[in-house]
Amino acid sequence: MDFKIEHTWDGFPVKHEPVFVRLNPGDGGVMMEVSAPFFNDPQTPLGEPGKPFNELWDYEVVETFFLNDITEQYLEVELCPHGQHLVLLLSGRRNVWKQELALSFQVSRGETKWEGRAHLPWSYFPPNVTKFNSFAIHGSEDRRSYEALYPVPQHELQQGQKPDFHRLEYFKPFSFNTLLGQEWKQPESDLWLIEKPDV
């Protein structure tokens, strides 16, 4: 399954090569691949590459969200061209109950482009994922750019509205059966069965 992030969060075309996100079947989960322009702005997070980094959304990052729109349980995955990552489990809008989960994530980076591959185990996904969105952020201060696969429709924008990637109502329908076949059933997750907040 291939996705291109071709618009800003508020529906204007991006002014660079779009960020490309691909989902493929993986061993015991999903392989998420990112191919994106490398802006190198902001500078590198201070965290160790390959490790979780809290508040990674303040840096250059590509994010994907996998949502069950009935329960509002969702998985948020953030990948940075410098190798850091952040995985969040949320139950209810913006209500993080588990964060900084381990992730197998490899990055290759050139001067103007970067590519990343992350293995997302089935245990990280909430039961019955029904909707999806993906985002990209780069730039500093007044050059900060927020981009969305499924942006807020321009006719619904309010004066002074700021970007908010947790507007779950703008996510679009999504089914892993498109990727894995109609007979496929999502494996149960021990993580989501317990769902005990640790933050």
What can you tell me about this protein's structure?
The chain is mainly beta and 199 residues long. The chain contains two helices and 13 strands; from the N terminus they run E-E-E-E-E-E-E-E-E-E-E-E-E-H-H. It has helices at residues 177-180, 190-194; strands at residues 2-5, 7-8, 19-26, 29-37, 61-68, 73-79, 85-91, 96-99, 104-109, 113-121, 131-138, 145-148, 172-173. Strands 2, 5, 6, 7, 8, 11, 12 and 13 form an eight-stranded antiparallel sheet that branches. Strands 1-3-4-10-9 form a five-stranded antiparallel sheet, with no helix packed on it. The chain is globular, with a radius of gyration of 16 Å. The model has no long low-confidence stretch (mean pLDDT 93).
Q: Which descriptors would you attach to this protein?
A:
five-stranded antiparallel β-sheet, 39% strand, mainly beta, 199 residues, 2 helices
What's the arrangement of secondary structure elements?
Blueprint: E1 2-5, E2 7-8, E3 19-26, E4 29-37, E5 61-68, E6 73-79, E7 85-91, E8 96-99, E9 104-109, E10 113-121, E11 131-138, E12 145-148, E13 172-173, H1 177-180, H2 190-194
Antiparallel strand pairs: 1-3, 2-12, 3-4, 4-10, 5-6, 5-11, 6-7, 7-8, 9-10, 11-12, 11-13
